[in-house]
TrEMBL record:
<dbReference type="InterPro" id="IPR038169">
    <property type="entry name" value="DC-UbP/UBTD2_N_sf"/>
</dbReference>
<dbReference type="Pfam" id="PF16455">
    <property type="entry name" value="UBD"/>
</dbReference>
<feature type="domain" description="DC-UbP/UBTD2 N-terminal">
    <location>
        <begin position="14"/>
        <end position="112"/>
    </location>
</feature>
<dbReference type="InterPro" id="IPR032752">
    <property type="entry name" value="DC-UbP/UBTD2_N"/>
</dbReference>
<feature type="region of interest" description="Disordered">
    <location>
        <begin position="1"/>
        <end position="25"/>
    </location>
</feature>
<dbReference type="InterPro" id="IPR039869">
    <property type="entry name" value="UBTD1/2"/>
</dbReference>
<feature type="compositionally biased region" description="Basic and acidic residues">
    <location>
        <begin position="1"/>
        <end position="15"/>
    </location>
</feature>
<protein>
    <submittedName>
        <fullName>Ubiquitin domain-containing protein</fullName>
    </submittedName>
</protein>
């Protein structure tokens, strides 16, 4: 038996990941522009602090389906604050913030013709 304040394993650190809410870019954007923004973010993200292996895990999670993304963050020890992965922490308390354009496509994405 645990004490009244104890928690079962996984109830705080492993929130269920869900798809992010729809969002709109400030102006219509092409897929190529979106991919460029994403690549620039991932290239510079480790410079904002935190551990490279957590950034790598977050990138893999954002590019995977929800089931695989959940397995990735759980195995990397990522503490998910927002279920859409926009705010996460590592086990040492470092904060990782992911912008909308990393998490999903905007509603005003210009489709290639």
């Amino acid at each position: 038996m645990g004490c009244a304040g104890s928690r079962e394993k996984g109830d705080e650190t492993s929130k269920k990941i869900r798809k992010p809410k729809p969002w709109k870019h400030s102006e219509p954007i092409t897929r190529a522009q979106l991919l460029r923004l994403r690549e620039e973010f991932w290239d510079t993200a480790p410079h904002y602090g935190g551990r490279k292996e957590i950034w790598d895990a977050l990138r893999a999670a954002t590019e995977a389906d929800l089931t695989l993304a959940q397995a990735i963050v759980d195995s990397a020890g990522v503490i998910v604050q927002n279920p859409d992965l926009s705010i996460c922490y590592d086990e040492r308390g470092a904060k990782y913030e992911l912008p909308n354009y990393i998490l999903s496509e905007p509603t005003n994405l210009i489709r290639d013709s």
